[in-house]
Amino acid sequence: MSRDSIDSFPSQAISHEECVGAMSNLLEIRDLHVNIEDREIVKGIDLVVNRGEVHAVMGPNGSGKSTLASTLMGHPFYTVTRGQVLFDGKDVADLSADERAKLGMFLAFQYPHSVPGVTVANFLRTAVNSVLGPENKMPPAQFRALLREKLALLKMDDSMAGRYINEGFSGGEKKRAEILQMAMLQPKLAVMDETDSGLDIDALRVVADGVNSLLGPDLGVLLITHYQRLLNYIKPDFVHVMVDGRIVASGGPELAQELERDGYAGFIEKALVAV
Amino acid sequence: MATETRLSGLDRDTVQTLSHAAGEPDWLRRRRLEAFELFESLPMPSRTDENWRRTDLRGLDLTGLHLPRGGGVAEAVSPMSLRSDGFGGELVMSQDELVRADLAMDLQEQGVVFCSLVEAIRRVPEVVEPFLSNPAVEAERGKFEALNAAFWGSGIFLYVPPETDVALPLRALVGLASVGSATFPRTLLVVGDGAKVVYGEEYASPPLQGQPTLSAGVVEVHVGERASLSMVTLQEFLGNVYDINTQQALLARDSTLNWLVVGLGEGITKSNIDVAMQGPGASTQMHGILWGYGHQHTDYHTLQDHQAPHCTSDLLYKGALIDDAVSVFSGRIRVAKGAHRTDSYQANRTVILSDHAAAFPSPNLEIEANDVRCTHGASVGRVDADQLFYLMSRGLSRDVATKMIVEGFFEEVLQREPAESVRDNLRDLIRRKMEEQTARA
Q1: Which of A110, A147, A221, B199 could pair with A193 in a Cys bridge, judged by C-beta atoms 3.0 to 4.6 Å apart?
Q2: Nearest by CB: A98 against B385, B395, B405
Q3: Beta-carbon separation of B389 and A100 below 8 A
Q4: Which of A261-265, B22-26, B102-106, B271-275 has the highest mean pLDDT?
Q5: CA-CA distance, B31 to B10, in Å (whole number)?
Q6: What is the CA radius of gyration of chain A?
Q7: How far is CA A75 from the centre of its chain?
Q8: B394–A contact, CB cutoff 8 A
Q9: Would you state the torsion angle of the CA atoms of residues B62, B64, B69, B73, taken in this order, to the nearest 10 degrees?
Q10: pLDDT at B441
Q11: What's the confidence (pLDDT) of residue B18?
Q12: Mean pLDDT: which of A264-273, B44-53, B96-105, B299-308 is highest?
């Protein structure tokens, strides 16, 4: 029915398209439901992240946070059964992970995978040029300079560039390498999945400094975390509490303080009552 | 020689004609004729033979092949895949004929000989004859070994005198050019006691489509006491080429052989690669990289032959297969009675990149000594989905990400190659080869 009405008013449809291009939210998640095999993990999430905003999604283990993160990036193991993910107003449902990356989406992995035999430099050169596209390839000298600059930013030794991706990296090195990749690719949206896990306080500070240096009016960030600790270093504008596949509370930074003080128990109870 | 002589085929007269034309000594001609008789008496291998179980030769009609000799050589050599800078000597063969042989002057002065085998018989008979009259690969070994012994052409010969360190790598190129031809490459390498050399051998052809073309090669390698040979064998035959070869290395006391076999061709390959450790303390590293595509069928039979005590062998063959490619790996470790303190390792790993590609590894051990350590393992698997997602999440297409994972997978083998220039060369070559494949797919 609604389709008929759009067809009968083509001019209106076009103006709507223009409107989307100019004013759309960076990331808009609408009633998202996600299954792993036959089990529903994400049970209806609505969330909007705009440019320049830092959102934290906090929740206990098993709440579906990581599933949300992987789904946003298009991991093939997860099936979207209902709802939409819009990036810059565009529905990304049919896009593979590489196509999402080219649009400017980035996922910092909770458990970054190692790829033996492939150096960080080789990988990043290929990745940067993939994202820039064939017409805008970065000259090798410029790439090397950029890589050195970002390595320094993350207090990583130059020799890191010659190591194999995440192979034999310590927990801290892996997380720093994720931020290095983010710094090199300069995404519009960074989804950071438990970036603080497994980090000691010094490593956490380096990683947070790295992320903070990348913040700006064009970057939207979705921090996914169990603990409030990370939020001492990266200040969120908005905090959402996720329990059992749903966002059960949203607020400002004070919500994180509340969680730190009282834990998730109260929210879990509320969620159960709601069901 | 402007015109090509089309010999009547693989018959006794052809053996006679070729031998006379080369001005060979009578004893060699007799050996060729004996080998020919053996060839005729042996049945064509069939899939009921254990060693040929997975390789079908019914598409190869030996009677339909011709031997192109005399003419058309210069343009016949295929484009060279490896860069030619940084080599101390280079020998080029088209089919069975020598195109040219170059060797740096200082190496010549050191007594290194790098020329055709036919020329070596004239120049250094005292060195060559013992190896020819008592070959490491006897004609009796099989139908195709006998065929080679009867018909081999110019041949390749490398001799490194004792205690000579050849600073720059040497290489030989063998190019096939003629559809429906039969070529019989034969290499004899003699590395003297305490000598050291890096040698590469590349077999290549432009796409030879249509009726089958045959290369039936033999490679014999003698590594002297304490000597060290690092060798790369690269094959890139394109089109409908059958490459059936037997390569045998004999290692004397405390010698070292590092041997990398790279398969990039697209026809049917059957390769017997045997390393016999005959002297105590010998060691070998046998490495393989196979990139299988199209209808490629590659069948490697390797043998780590421990005949003496205190020897070590370490084999790592890796393959990646797309399209309809099939690989067979039959790796054997044999430890003779008395070869105690043997340390032998064997691994074959294959990544399958398409639904129709298949790999058949079969390791086996034959141990007749005590106090030995032998391990082997084989795996066939797909590219890890999480690795793939990880790379793709950084903007790499599925295809580029897959290639990158495969390159990394091969890198472990390349890292075992001691010569950096060879390593870099091969890395580039394999990358180009893999890219070429996508473009066509």
Answers
A1: A110
A2: B395
A3: no
A4: B271-275
A5: 16
A6: 20
A7: 13
A8: yes
A9: -100
A10: 39
A11: 87
A12: B299-308
Question: Which of A98, A102, A115 has the CB atom closest to B387's CB atom?
Answer: A115
Write down the pLDDT at residue A3: 38
Calpha distance A237→A235 (Å, rounded): 7
Q: Do residue B404 and residue A77 have CB atoms under 8 angstroms apart? A: no
B11 against B224, higher pLDDT: B224
A181 chain-B contacts, CB cut-off 8 A: 394
* Contact residues on chain A for B408, CB-CB shorter than 8 A: 115-118, 164
On chain B, the residues whose CB falls within 8 A of the CB of A185 are 394-395
- CB burial of residue B332 (10 Å; 0-12, 13-18, 19+): middle
B144: region left, alpha or beta (phi > 0 left; psi from -120 to 50 alpha): alpha
Q: A99 to chain B: nearest residue by CA? A: B395
User: How is residue B370 annotated by DSSP?
Assistant: S
Evaluated on CA atoms B135, B137, B138, B143, the torsion sign reads negative
Let me know: does A222 contact A192? Beta carbons within 8 Å.
yes
Q: Does B392 contact chain A (CB < 8 Å)?
A: yes
Residues of chain A with pLDDT under 50: 1-21
Inter-residue contact A181 to B394 (CB < 8 Å)? yes
User: Domain coordinates of chain B in residue numbers?
Assistant: 5-385
pLDDT given at position B23: 87
User: What are A193's two structure tokens?
Assistant: 């999945």
Cβ distance B404 to A185 less than 8 Å, yes or no, reads no
With an 8 Å Cβ cutoff, are B396 and A117 in contact? no
- In sequence order, which residues have a C-beta less than 8 Å from that of residue B296 and are 6 or more positions away? B265, B266, B267, B268, B269, B321, B323, B325, B326
Structure tokens at A231: 């939020």
Q: Which residues of A touch B401 (CB under 8 A)?
A: 98
**Geometric angle at alpha carbon A223, from A220 and A229, rounded to 5°:** 135
Asked if B169 and B201 touch (Cβ cutoff 8 Å), the reply is no
In angstroms, the CA B248 to CA B221 distance is 6
Nearest to B411 among A97, A101, A117 (CB): A117
pLDDT at A274: 62
What's the confidence (pLDDT) of residue B69?
65
Of A101, A112, A117, the CB nearest to B408: A117
Kindly report the average pLDDT of chain B as a whole number: 91
A46: CB partners within 8 A, 6+ apart: A29, A30, A31, A32, A247
Write out the DSSP string of A158-208.
Answer: GGGGGSEETTT--HHHHHHHHHHHHHHH--SEEEEESTTTT--HHHHHHHH
Task: Enumerate chain A positions whose Cβ falls within 8 A of a Cβ in B.
Answer: 73-77, 96-98, 100-102, 106-107, 109, 112-118, 122-123, 126-127, 130-131, 164, 181, 185
Is B439 in the A-facing interface, judged by CB distances under 8 Å?
no
Q: Which fold has domain A25-112+188-274?
A: Rossmann fold (3.40.50)
CB within 8 Å: A73 and B398: no
| Rounded CA separation B95/B6 (Å) | 13
Task: Give tens-digit pLDDT for B425-438.
Answer: 899 999 999 988 76
Which pLDDT value is given to residue A13? 38
Q: What is the pLDDT of residues B269-315, one digit of tens each?
A: 999 999 999 999 999 999 999 999 999 999 999 999 999 999 999 99
Structure tokens at B437: 């494949």
End-to-end CA, chain B: 41
Mean pLDDT, residues B346-357 taken together? 95
